[in-house]
Structures are given as structure tokens and as C-alpha cells.
Write a structure and sequence with these properties.
The structure is a single chain. The protein is mostly helical. The longest helix is centred in the N-terminal third of the chain and has 30 residues. The radius of gyration is 20 Å and the shape is globular.
Length: 401
Amino acid sequence: MTDTTSELNEAIAFDTAEPAAWSAATWFAVLSMAATSFALVSAEFLPAGLLTPMARDLGITEGTAGQVVTATASVGAVAALLSNVLIGRLNRKTVLVSLSALAIGSNILAAFATDFWLLLLGRAGLGIALSGFWALSVAVVARLVGANATGRGMAIVTLGVSLATIAAPSMGALISDWLGWRIAMAMTAGLAALAMLLQALSLPTLPASTSNSLVDVFRLTGRRSVQLGMLAILLLMTGHFAGSVYVRPFLEQVTLLETESIALTLLGFGIASVIGNVAGGRMADASIHLALGVTAALMAVAALALVLWGAHIGVAFALVALWGFAFGMAPVVLPTNLSRGAPDALEAAGSLMVVSFQVAISIGAVFGGYVVDHYGAVGPLTLTAVLAASTVALAFLQPRN
């Protein structure tokens, strides 16, 4: 873990220094990181578009099939805590290439899984690859572009997330309808292979420069602002994933959409999330507490209105897009909110952020699966609305800086 003074000096340098021009090699390396984020997040989001055919093929309920999300997230939560400790002395390039190789194998295993447990095993491997990549991403980008351009570098890397949000659910739904869900899953292995090749060709050698300790991470949990920041992530993201994983069954059973229309609706969700990402960044800079409240309120309104009026096709499309806008704001607003409570320990706060997201995804998928199996397709969306509304209330409890 780097010391407090070093982190604060880097933050000051980022705020005041003019970004230097990037070489072609730097651009290539950063774009390889963006390609990796696209490949990993595409695989993570894919089940939202494959849930129905995957459940039918494996002979399980849609609620049970949704637990592939739980496997990815729950393993990822543990990996987020341990990854920086376990790989502390390994070359970062070697680690990143190895994580991409793990993603390839995991996606292939999931694509050829003959039963639910093999599918879970494949998704668990993906969880390790995801958390390991995000735990290293900021530090690696800072070394590639310099401390004064870390924000610009991470904006390019997270562009892969935005593109995956648009492409994965909608294209997954279409490909699974045309060629089968297994082909759709196997294609994510191809994306990971391309990302691994780009990493191997473009990333410079990155020897370990810091040592890490779990003590630094756990010490932060005693701060009230960090506790509230983690709770905001847990509430809002649990609500989001409790409902979003089961949006396809809702659109099929309540809105009565065909596969092509579902894919178009999910595409609208993804496009809106990109716009929300930009809006969330600007609002978070102006007022993080207002940004948190608005993000949660929009998601609560979208989910509740879907429950009430989601049978109407045009209304459902608009509300899913509004949900996407709120979800696009969340990955900017929630980490910023948490980091405000630990400006002197940003790396440790980042670990807690990843853990909070992964735990929320796990809890959301578990509760969402239970609710959809026992109360139907509108149940998970109702849970989303309740938890998002609770996050609005939490925004008013945040300490003002």
C-alpha cells in the first residue's frame, strides 16, 4: 500500500498538471486495457440476454439460472480483497495476461457446460478475472500514462464498460435466438483472446512497485463516511441486479415482447447508460450528495413505474431506458461517493468499492431469483424500487464535506 503523502501528492499533480502528449505505444497499451474491460464486462452482462434459453436448455428455473451472476460476483468479492495481496510481487503485465487467459477458459467452460454446476464453475473463474483486472486497472493506467493523466486513461478503459453495456445483453439475446446461447457464450471467449493478444503485444513490463496489506483495507471500515458509502453501493446495486437480471422475463411475460423487440429495448438501456455515465460524472463534481439522490430516485421511479404500467410497449421501452440512464450514473457516482470518505487511502477504498459491488450483485441475484420464482416477473422490479428508494433516504445522511 502506498503511503498517504504519496497518494495526496499524486492527487494534487492530477488536478494541476497539464497532461503530456501520449506516444503511439501508450495509446496502444491503454486501448488494450479498454479491450479487456469490454471483453470481461461483456461476459459479465451476457446472462441478462440469455437467461430464458439457458434455463430451458439446462432444465432449471429462470431464478436458478440467474445464480450464474451470483457465482461471478461472490467469487469476485473474495478475489477483490485478496488479489492485490496475493499478486503483490508479480509483474503486472504477466498478471493481466494471465487473467485474460483465465477469462478465456472460464467462458469456454460455461459455453460447453452440460449441467448447472459446470456453468457455475465457469462463471466463478470469470469472477476472479473481473475482480483482479479492476483491482489493478487504476494503478496500471497511472503507470502507463502518468499520474497527471490517470483520469483520461481510465475514461478510455471504462469506455469498454459502456460499450459492453450496450452490446452484451442485446446482442446476446439475438445471437442466442439465431445460433443458441452456447455460441453467444463462446464468442466472449474470443473477445477475451483478442484482449489477451493486445495486452501481450502492447503492455510494457510492469514490475511490482508496492506491497499491499489487508490491514489497510479493513482499517477504513471504521470511518462513518466509508460505511455509508459502502451501504449506498450495497442498497442501490442490490436493487439494480435484483431486477435487471430478470428484465427479459418481465418483458416477455408482462410486456409480451418478442426476442427482436427485447433486444431493441435492451439496446436502448445500454445507450441511455452511456448518456447517464456522462451526466453522472458532471453531477458528481458539482454535488456528490445530490448526484447520489438523483441516481437512486431515477432508478426507483423507473422500476416502480414498470411494475405499474409496464404492460404498455412504448411506456416499457421508455422506462427501461430511464433505468439504463440511472444505471449509467451509478458506476461514477457510487465510487466517487465512497472515495470522498478516504482521500488519504484511495487504493484501500478502491478495494472496498469492488467488494461492495460484487457482494451487492450476489445478494441481488439471490433475492431476485427467489422473488421471481415465488412472486412472478414483477416481484424483482418491486424489490428494485424499494431498495433504490432507501438509497435516496441514505443520501441525506451522508456527511457534508
